[in-house]
Amino acid sequence: MSAPVVAVVGRPNVGKSTLLNRIVGRREAIVEERSGVTRDRKAVDAEWRGRPFIVMDTGGFIATEEGLDAEVSRQSVRAIEDADAVVMVVDVTVGVTNEDEAVASLLRGRDIPVFVVANKVDDTNRENDAWAFLSLGLGDPHPISALHGRRTGDFLDVLVDALPPEGEDADGDEGEVREEILAVAIVGRPNVGKSTLFNTLDRAERSVVHDLAGTTRDTIDTVIETESGPVRILDTAGMRRRGKIDVSTEYYSVVRALRAIDTADVVLLVIDALIGVTHQDQRLAERASISGSPVVVLLNKWEMADADQRELVSEQVDDRLKFLPNAKVLKISALTGKGTHKIIDALLDTADTYHRRIPTAKVNEVLRQAQAHQPAPGGTRVLYATQGATDPPTFTLFANRRLPPTYLRYLERKLREAFAMGDTPLKLRVRARRD
Q: Where are the alpha helices (H) located in 292-420, listed in sequence order?
């Protein structure tokens, strides 16, 4: 059933991401001993005492009306509005601050459970300090240490008891049955428009969009509803060459982005049409190809490129991404939304072939005709073949001896043409009979 959403909010550097990691039992959110590491909303599945719920991590709230901090703060407000319960994290070693008061003012009077968690209570000597947060007007504070796990279990007991009854949301509506959904990773270099595209597809400003490169620090995901069913979109941090990754925060961002590629059903590779296909774009495409995920190439900012630049970037796609010969290429504007309506159809079409299973009889008929039309050199032939797996389609060919690479590519092309496999990667494994 649909799980309730618990938003974790508070000013910067109070331990929100540390608490999220403690709740889910793994290092899901990036944690650094400095403020501003978390910028977007990040939703993670969690469970306590057999009760599933979703934890929504947010960036630090700062009362300002302009700049990147203002956009991060707006993300916190949206998380509060979407939540079934809110956990406000404060730092007991600092005490009540003006930013704490500002966050509390957003929460007072809301018709959902609100909890104040006094973090960094590492021992009993700090417990009395937690009572200072009674002044926030949100009830008794819960003293914990997210880093060491001290009393976090006691707090989670209270939290899950306050969540809506299982199978209902905060309004008492019945939830919907969960299903396996298509996972799509948006990847690309920093500042090419991934988060803008993510927000356009989601139709809600879930990721922070700013001209500053590297705004997205983590992998952010959400589920969007389409006419053909739900699709999970993952917005990843921009990836740069290893030599340019000089801080641990960006390192973990890249690790999560690569993990998103490896687990995605389809990869959207966003390329800046004003710059063209770079070496890093090639590396990202290679990583996606190696993972077995089909790739859809998006040439973003297309409307801003002149005729010469459009011709140049089209040639670069053909040349520098030639190892993705069947990939769909779409010209879009993530900012204006032009051309983005084609993306979902391309994703669903690509995913259909990615999960497709071909009957064994049809596979062998295609290979028989291919060999009759063009026999392999030296009497080599495929005796029998079967599709052993999907995601991507994987075929095992039983042959009388090893097949030359060029002939194997010929057979792959025939399979792709016969079954309209489009841009989906195919894997062919050959098992040669011993002499």
A: 307-320, 341-354, 360-373, 405-418
Tokens found for residue 251: 């390192």
| Paired strand residues for 430 | 397
What's the CA gap between 199 and 321, in Å, rounded? Answer: 27
- Contact status, residue 189 vs residue 238, Cβ threshold 8 Å: yes
Report the C-alpha gap between 231 and 223 in whole angstroms: 5
- 3-class DSSP assignment, residue 170: coil
- Please write the tens of the pLDDT for every residue from 40-69: 456 778 888 888 998 888 777 765 544 444
CB-based contact 415:366 (threshold 8 Å) = yes
Q: Which residues contact 208 (CB under 8 A, 6 or more apart)?
A: 39, 40, 59, 68, 71, 72, 75, 195, 215, 216
CA dist 148 and 126 (Å) reads 14
Q: Which single residue is written with the structure tokens 């841009």?
A: 423
The span from the CA of 23 to the CA of 200, in Å, is: 31
Global pTM value: 0.51
Sign of CA pseudo-dihedral 74, 77, 79, 81: negative
Distance spanning both ends of the chain, measured CA to CA? 57
CA-based nearest residue to 4, from 63, 86, 66, 70: 86
The interaxial angle of helices 16-24 and 152-162, nearest 10 deg, is 80
